[in-house]
Structure formats: C-alpha cells, structure tokens
C-alpha cells in the first residue's frame, strides 16, 4: 500500500503541474488577447442603472466592460481585469473605458439627452498615478463633455494605498464635481476611521454582504456600516440586490442607493439609449 500511495502522490503532483501549466497558458493567452482586443476594438461597455432606495428614481449608471473574443470566447471582466492589472495594462484599459464613456455621453447630449452620471471603475494602481486626473480631463475636453457627467469607483484596497498622490487625485476630482465611490466596501479590512478622512462621496457595500443579509451577523455588520457611513456624512450604495426582501431591509436600514438585478441588469448602450428616449 506504500507503493500505492507513492503512485497516487505522483499522479496528483502531475495533475498539479498540469493545472499550473494550464493556468499560466490561459493567463498568457488572455494577456495577448487584451492587446489584440484593444487594437481591434473588441471590447464593449454595458451600463447598469443605480437607483435611490427612497423613491426608486434613477440616479446614475456604472460602466462594466464586456469582452466576447472570437478566439478565447467570453472572458469575464474580473478575470481579465486582474490579469491586466498584473501585466501593467490596467491604465490602457481605463483609458479605453473613459474614452468610450465620454464619447457616448457626447453623442447622447447631441441628441438632446442629459444622462445621469456614468461611473467608471478605475484599476488598482491608477489612482496612485499623478497622470490620472489629466487623462480624465483630456478625455472630457476631447469629447466636449463636462467632467461631472462621470463618476469614479476605486476599490477599498486601492484607496488605502499610502501614496499621497491618491489624495491629490481625490481632491482634484472632488473640486471638479466628480464623485468618487469606494468600491467593494467591507472586503478590505480598512477602518472607517481612516476612510472618513478621504475626500470620497460614496461607499459601495459589496454584494457578498447583501446576499447574506439573512445571516444575523451579516445583518448587524451591514446595519453598522450604513449607520457609520451616515455618521461621517458619506452616501451608501448596496450592490447586488436581487430580491425585494433585500431591498426592503436595506431601505429600512437607511441605505441611500441600490444596484442589482431586482432593479436592472447591466444593459447594452443601445438598450440604455432606448430608456433615455
Ligand atoms: P464590481 O465593480 O463590484 O461590479 C459589480 C459586479 O456585480 C458586476 O459584475 C455586475 O454585473 C454584477 N452584478 C450587478 N448586479 C448584480 C446582482 O444583482 N447580482 C449579482 N450576482 N451580480 C450583480 P461584472 O460586470 O462581471 O464585473 C465584475 C468585476 O470586474 C467588477 O466588480 C469590477 O471589479 C471588474 N470590472 C468590470 N468592468 C470593469 C471596468 O470597466 N474597469 C475595471 N477596472 N474593472 C471592471
Ligand atoms: Ca464597481
Ligand atoms: Ca463588488
Ligand atoms: Ca443616509
């Protein structure tokens, strides 16, 4: 039986190596795919509406990347964004999304629509880059759209970085009326005591908490997050609201805004345009 175990071990080591090999190959394919998709303009944007919990009125959108690749198939954004961030393609992707968003807002404004602010997700290290504000400003000028037609979302982890440039960027955006949200709030172990001093407007409570509201500890945690955000004058949005029950609980807790399938899924630009008309 000792021999059997040795064999079994060898087998699992081989499988383990195959796993790693497969993983690395896939990462490399995706990295090359991102560059190709940028050149061939294969990325698309979906917009997901955000609502005020109080009266269900629309209050903005979030831009979400979509990639259906002819060779790689559909690649999920959390997968390719993580790879892009690792191989230094995050800033290029951000620039693509910003440009696309301003271009679309320009077209809608030309058609006489005045869409609510579209929030753009910014990749991990970009907020620590002194060029970010200028990039956004240039994009806005190029498309002749006021800066405050967009908003920004940065993850809790990225906001916690200790570069003073992060604060400079946050201040510059605030001065121009661009609201910045802390994304995936609650997953990054930061203290609200620290966040209260950041010049941000909104906390987005991550969907893992919303989907676990039936759990009494999670309920208590979310309730506390909303109360504390309120106490320091920040707005709160809960993401991933899928049921009316979750929506009602969050509304009762005093959560300001909501986003999720119970209201609307991410929609194509065409679908959004129809809803504007
Ligand atoms: P995120 O920023 O936390 O975005 C929320 C995710 O939740 C989106 O997934 C959205 O489609 C999904 N979602 C919305 N409502 C519901 C709901 O009711 N239930 C459930 N289960 N999910 C819901 P998506 O589009 O797959 O994006 C995943 C992540 O990829 C995003 O998480 C964000 O971190 C990243 N991402 C997506 N687009 C971009 C982008 O343009 N730039 C950057 N930097 N990151 C992006
Ligand atoms: Ca987001
Ligand atoms: Ca999230
Ligand atoms: Ca409030």
Automatic annotation (TrEMBL):
<feature type="domain" description="EAL">
    <location>
        <begin position="27"/>
        <end position="277"/>
    </location>
</feature>
<protein>
    <recommendedName>
        <fullName>Diguanylate cyclase</fullName>
    </recommendedName>
</protein>
């Amino acid at each position: 039986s000792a021999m059997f175990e040795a064999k079994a071990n060898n087998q699992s080591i081989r499988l383990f190596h195959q796993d790693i090999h497969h993983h690395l190959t896939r990462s490399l394919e995706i990295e090359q795919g991102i560059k190709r998709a940028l050149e061939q303009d294969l990325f698309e944007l979906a917009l997901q509406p955000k609502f005020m919990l109080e009266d269900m009125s629309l209050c903005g959108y979030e831009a979400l990347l979509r990639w259906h690749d002819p060779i790689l198939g559909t690649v999920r954004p959390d997968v390719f964004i993580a790879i892009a961030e690792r191989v230094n393609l995050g800033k290029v992707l951000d620039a693509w999304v910003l440009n696309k968003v301003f271009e679309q807002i320009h077209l809608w404004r030309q058609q006489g629509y005045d869409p609510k602010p579209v929030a753009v997700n910014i990749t991990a290290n970009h907020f620590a880059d002194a060029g970010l504000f200028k990039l956004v400003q240039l994009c806005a000028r190029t498309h002749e759209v006021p800066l405050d037609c967009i908003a920004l979302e940065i993850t809790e982890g990225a906001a916690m970085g200790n570069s003073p440039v992060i604060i400079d960027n946050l201040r510059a955006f605030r001065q121009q009326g661009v609201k910045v949200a802390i994304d995936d709030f609650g997953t990054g172990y930061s203290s609200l005591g620290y966040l209260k001093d950041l010049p941000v407007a909104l906390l987005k409570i991550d969907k893992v908490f919303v989907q676990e509201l039936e759990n009494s500890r999670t309920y208590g945690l979310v309730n506390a997050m909303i109360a504390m955000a309120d106490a320091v004058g920040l707005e709160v949005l809960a993401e991933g609201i899928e049921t009316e029950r979750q929506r009602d609980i969050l509304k009762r807790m005093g959560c300001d805004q909501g986003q999720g399938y119970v209201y609307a899924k991410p929609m194509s630009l065409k679908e959004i345009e129809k809803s504007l008309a």
